[in-house]
Amino acid sequence: IDDIMFRCDDELTGCETMFAKDTDGSCFRETDPSFSRWGWTNPIDGTEEKLELWAGAGKCDTDKGTLVGYLHVSFEEGSMTATYEMMDGYYMTETHLYAGTEKYPEGDNGKPTVAPGQYPYSNDMLEYESEYSYTIDVPDTPFWLIAHGVVCGDFDADDDDDDHDDDDNDNDDD
């Protein structure tokens, strides 16, 4: 509990949605207009990569967002390690990860989805962590990667992350 109290002294003013973005990443809305959520799906070719983690970048506009960290991707013998590393003053409370041969994971209804709660790898019990890793088996390269999380820190009051739908039903019919 002392650790949490110390981190609260870092002036955590709010929490935002974050997604990883590679230079070749594709905005969800640009590849499938039926998605209401912002974020990126990223092509991965099997080499070590460093993707940016953007928070509050509604409509995939990084000018509206905050660079809060990096996602380091490395490979060893058929597995990939994806490490979320936050910049000073930012802490994660949850992460979600997808890696697959399709641009988007399949949702509960069998259709493509960008709803983070339906990504195959997740941890929504983080306690203000500054680093977190997944090591998973991956398909042959190339493949697609979506990395999502919730990050808390000292965000400006004028940051606008209202341009997304926070439910887990993007492109899912009930």
Structure description:
The protein has 174 residues and is mainly beta. It is 6% helix and 41% strand. Strands 1, 2, 3, 4, 5, 6, 7, 8, 9 and 10 form a ten-stranded antiparallel β-sheet that branches. A hairpin with a 2-residue loop joins strand 5 (66-76) and strand 6 (79-86). It starts with a helix and ends in a 21-residue tail after the last strand.
Short précis:
The protein has helices at 2-8, 28-31; strands at 14-21, 26-27, 40-44, 49-55, 66-76, 79-86, 91-100, 121-123, 131-137, 143-153.
Q: Helical element count?
A: 2
Radius of gyration: 16 Å
Task: Determine the N-to-C terminus distance.
Answer: 41 Å
The overall average pLDDT, rounded, is 86
Number of strands: 10
Task: List descriptors.
2 helices, mainly beta, 174 residues, disordered N terminus
Secondary-structure blueprint of this entry?
Elements: H1 2-8, E1 14-21, E2 26-27, H2 28-31, E3 40-44, E4 49-55, E5 66-76, E6 79-86, E7 91-100, E8 121-123, E9 131-137, E10 143-153
Antiparallel strand pairs: 1-4, 1-10, 2-3, 3-10, 4-5, 5-6, 6-9, 7-8, 7-10
